Amino acid sequence: MKKVYLExxxxxxxVSDSERVAAKLAADGFEITPNEAAADVVLxxxxxxxxxxxxxxxTRVGQIRNSEREKSGNKQIVGVxxxxxxxxxxxxxxxxxxxxxxxxxxxxxxxxQAIEQVFAGQKNYFDLGxxxxxxxxxxxxxxxxxxxxxxxxxxxxxxKFCTYCIVPFSRGREKSLPASEIIRQVxxxxxxxxxxxxxxxxxxxxxxxxxxSGLENFHGATAFSRLLRAVAATGIERIKFNTSFPRxxxxxxxxxxxxxxxxxxxVHLPVQSGSNNILRAMRRGHTIESYLEKIDKIKSASRKxxxxxxxxxxxxxxxxxxxxxxxKMADYCKFDSAFIFKYSPRPGTPAYSMIDNILARNKTERxxxxxxxxxxxxxxxxxxxxxxTVKVLVEKISSKNKAxxxxxxxxxxxxxxxxxxxxxxxxxxxxxxxxxxxxxYGEICDHYVS
Length: 450
Ligand code: SF4
What we know:
Number of domains: 4
Radius of gyration: 23 Å
Oligomer: single chain
CATH architecture of the largest domain: 3-Layer(aba) Sandwich
Bound molecules: iron/sulfur cluster
Number of helices: 13
Helix content: 25-40%
């Protein structure tokens, strides 16, 4: 039996693709090994969002080709999957010819075929084709990143073409999965004992299936809010969704959350900038006024919804006034947390032709100032949980302290606490006793919930 070592960079979508690659390989008689040195095949599922992530690929291939195993003449097959594979294609074979095959983002279902072709002696095998019609989206427990949590892709690709972003080029146009297939998967996962699902996609709320099959019995202003209600009706304990696109964030999504307790208390809504000038240059398709209207709706929900975002500082031509607008917006929104990025031009994107005219020093200053403000709001929000009781899905032993267990709340906060391994996979009540900037700590209440 040939052994395969699989390494994944990037977002939830890549983690989810890798899970299905592992499931396909296992079904075709390969063994997935956690031991890189023992593997006959090393697969790298790549991310292209930042140039740094792309460089990681070349570093990793170099490490593999210089390993003790390779030096002893025992060569491994190296396959590159995912976004860098899709964008670079055949050019990845140029230079020192260290890569054996390349599979694009939608060709990953044919991974076994690619490996067999290379074993049969084919050189420079590549496949950047579309998904097969009968592509299997389900993943068995053995290949999931967690026995208790599952990613369920509902839409892939992106039609938005924000000027700084490579995703529409690496992942192609938006394509929604049929609702009936999504519901079938969620029911299966529930039967397998999964407690929490994450509906995932580059823009989940742009969900637009070709037919309404599976959604007919559910009201809702958009296909996505009807899907949320349909998934909630499966009775699975927790449903999270990520990422939402502001322009397509209809108020009815908040109504669906209000109606269904198993739709979790968390919305991730990337704003990117607080300035309309910059939002226009980024071609985001929303203004700051329309974004804040959505935030007001989220804040008016009957349950407190946690709110997270992504922000880029130092986009070309961002003035001090534009940045001040971002600070003002962030203070108004009081995000539970935010991913802040310093702009860097990405080859292949429309913004690459703009002059990157904000000095590195200024980008860093803006980053730190915004981070300070967001962390300060975040601290107050985390402190507000002190002495409160929250429900936590116990996911794993804490990586920082082996004596502690770790899990997430419905509002996506990490909570660590002391307890028995027997609690893994259960949803339990924890009283919060300490709040650090990114993590809550607590004690088990004397009963658990499910
Ligand atoms: S919405 Fe914009 S930032 Fe998000 S994936 Fe699409 S192009 Fe990229």
